[in-house]
Design brief:
249 residues; alpha/beta; 8 strands; binds 2-phosphoglycolic acid
Length: 249
Amino acid sequence: MKLPIFAANWKMNHGPTDARAFMKSFLAHYPRQHDRKVLFFPNALSVTTVADAVRERPDLEVGVQNVHFEDKGAFTGENSAPMARDAGATHVLVGHSERRHVFGESDEAAGRKVQAALRAGLTPVLCVGELLAEREAGDTEAVVLRQLRAGIAGLDAQQVAGMLFAYEPVWAIGTGRTATPGDANTVHQAIRAALREAIGERAMGVPILYGGSVSRSNAPQLLAEEEVDGVLVGGASLDADGWNAIVRA
Ligand code: PGA
């Protein structure tokens, strides 16, 4: 049985002061749970704050939203995977749609970042998803699987089996439009099939999260789908009480 995963992507919100207040409030109302895992993805400056807050809580973990694919060097403004690890992160989002479409990150760069994460002992959460025009052109599966295959290129089965994946249709992110649970499940099935092709039966144990305007009202239906193993939540994860309600789904 895979434990359901609830991942909060705070994007560029909640600096250390807000993050501390959020965690204090969240922890006060969310006692340790054994049947689910909660991941926080604060901005890099708040990672240590969140990591300190969850130190005594094995059911809660923290990750970074992005890393550079080199371990160190002259890359002003960037953070590396070993540094994220040192700051207390266990996970890293790779290829989030805002990285791909706002910052122009290529499929190949996402693949290099996955490799950097694995080198550093971080669990990569590879995010994939199609634009609205790509969906309307009937290219959803082709786009998602192209991103997926580039993201895991050159990895062995054990490495892929230890990763997480997130399907986030770009048109559903921050727009209030969600894929129907059935649509999400269909794409998750295609991802599962591609993973199976790549690594065999071990693919069955790999968590695939859904993201894009997930809220406390739609999370239960999404999670009820067979292939939806968790959710990756942006806007609705920013308020401690609202997030608490979602993770209890
Ligand atoms: P959203 O963001 O929940 O605000 O749509 C999800 C994400 O981008 O990970």
